[in-house]
Design a protein that fits this description.
Elements lengths: L25 H13 L12 E5 L2 E4 L4 E4 L2 H4 L8 H13 L11 H13 L6 E6 L2 H16 L3 E5 L8 H6 L17 E4 L11 H20 L4 E6 L15 H11 L3 E5 L23 E4 L10 E6 H4 L15 H16 L2 H22 L3 E7 L2 E6 L9 H13 L2 E2 L1 E3 L5 E4 L7 H17 L1
Helix pairs in contact: 3-10, 4-10, 7-8, 11-13
The protein binds ligand PLZ.
Amino acid sequence: MSQHPFAVGGPALAQRRNLVTEIPGPASRQLLERRQRSVARGLSHVLPIFVTAAGGGVLIDADGNSLIDFGSGIAVTTVGNSAEAVVTRITEQVAQFTHTCFMVVPYEGYVEVCEELNRVTPGAHDKRSALFNSGAEAIENAVKIARHATGRPAVVVFDHAYHGRTNLTMAMTAKNMPYKDGFGPFAGEIYRAPMAYPFRWPGGPARCAADALGVVRDLVHAQVGEHNVAAVVIEPVQGEGGFIVPPPGFLPGLADYCREHRIVFIADEIQSGFCRTGDWFACDHEGVVPDLVATAKGIAGGLPLAAVTGRAEIMDSVHAGGLGGTFGGNPIACAAALGAIETMTKEDLPAAARRIGDIMLPRLRAMAQHHPVICDVRGRGAMIAIELVKPGTIEPDATVAAKVAKACHAAGVIVLTCGTYGNVLRFLPPLVISADLLDEGLSVLEDTFSQV
Ligand code: PLZ
């Protein structure tokens, strides 16, 4: 048992940054020692503190420090930690039953989540959904379904992509360290195309969309053959790879290309989905309608749940018993998802994400004017990042990104890094964060840049 007094999180927590010890404090340091002796080294952490409660835009640690949360547990607590509707629904469900396995005895909550997913994901066509436990598992299943529906083996993915840590999804993920190194051999029939990355596109951002589409066409034609491709899988805004927003026209062009060759277009909306980018899904910004959408993270207010949603004829091409898993669509996770989706709708969280972007983007652009290490400010809604380089060059500077992140942590603001080169700072606040906290977090970041 914890030696700390029982703490209650949720939106009622005092919304302020307040450090009462250094980071980490003595209680967290003690827990870190225990962690070191008991937890496998392969699991790392970003902050050396232990949480005891969280809610709104703050997280409380074992020493009583209150930190501003710009990470949301990697884009998960979109509705805030222990959000009211999530807690209410979980509490009711946990008292009724905790598990039957949907494949043994079904329950209404699972069906209701599928109905909601079919409603909120892009496109008005007839859809079906299937529920799983993690983002990687959703991607695995999306690929299974696309292969089954098309009878084709190949899968096209992109540079800087992140799709998970299982064998197939490691193969689909682009970055070696830390995700793939030493973990091969990887699943076959994965082909990688260059990502439309405006800031680093050799011909410049204006040519990026058309050039990148041309490369995909040529590469698939020469190396794979269109008729062998089951699916193209893309994050409509790339997450771990650096919050890369493709230029306008790229995603619609890719969707057209897939239609032309009867390739299943799979959007990995695991990080970008559920209101994060200022719309329900990142595909919505350009009216792109994927054949299949993989979701997870923000779907269930912090509980493990993931889904594949898509065209009825593709989803239903799989025989009964071909999809499933013991825990997929667990009733408590489903209750949480219904609470989260209810909160997103009632509180209009897409609008909240847009307001966050409207506050963050101008301030970060102003920071970039004063700090030439910031070479690019990008993102949509509350999925925002800054890329850092050696001033005057486009050479990535991961060292300065790590330093800024560490200084923010020490000052009580949780920020995360990302990017193939480790030189991107990303900001993913809960969408229920107050404007004051957001402002304060940005001021801390600004001070940090002046120090490093
Ligand atoms: N697809 C787009 O962002 C998870 C990974 C953290 P799981 N991203 C955070 C880490 O280092 O393991 C992610 C994602 C996109 C798939 C996934 C995988 O989702 O729920 O972590 O399996």
